Amino acid sequence: MAGELSIRAVEQADLPALLELYRDLNPDDPPLALPDATSIWQQISNHSGIAIFVGVLERALVTSCTLIVVPNLTRGGLPYALIENVVTSAKYRKQGYGAAVLKHAFAEAWKHGCYKIMLLTGSKNPATLKFYSGVGFEQNKTGFQIRQLPVREG
Questions:
Q1: Pair 5, 57: CB distance under 8 Å
Q2: What is the distance between the alpha carbons of residues 117 and 36, in angstroms, rounded to a whole number?
């Protein structure tokens, strides 16, 4: 990594920078007003088992992912985790920052006793798929979804 990345849970003061970072994830999404984002962030922060992790480099928010830990009645009651909204700012990609924030999320999931971590991507980009394989994900299941929003291209 080019610089020292600090990884932590997102804070309310980070919301403007996080919303800007999400523009790199879904550039065609309509902008979310800060008051709406604040209300949603408060719901997320009050919801046990959800965390948004951010990677900060010299005060710039450069990468993020969301971890959701789900209680479970199978596998002896062990929870499982979902990872969503993985993004690294375009100008900071290929420097290890995305991998670092994901590995932080993995460690948190294991601390919660999760028996597996799942991630879905709609990307067909070989570099994206290689990135996820490189951090430890195996492409070994079939995923299905029902959507109300159109699939993101890319």
A1: yes
A2: 29
pLDDT (0 to 100) of residue 106: 98
Residue 74 CA, distance from chain mean position: 25
What is the value of pTM for the model shown? Answer: 0.92
pLDDT tens-digit readout, 54-76: 999 999 999 999 999 999 999 99
Q: Render the burial of 15-37: b for 16+ CB within 10 Å, e for the rest.
A: bebbbebbebeeeeeeeeeeeeb
Nearest to 62 by CA among 86, 81, 38: 86
Distances (CA, A) of 110 to 24, 67, 78, 107, 116: 28, 11, 11, 5, 8
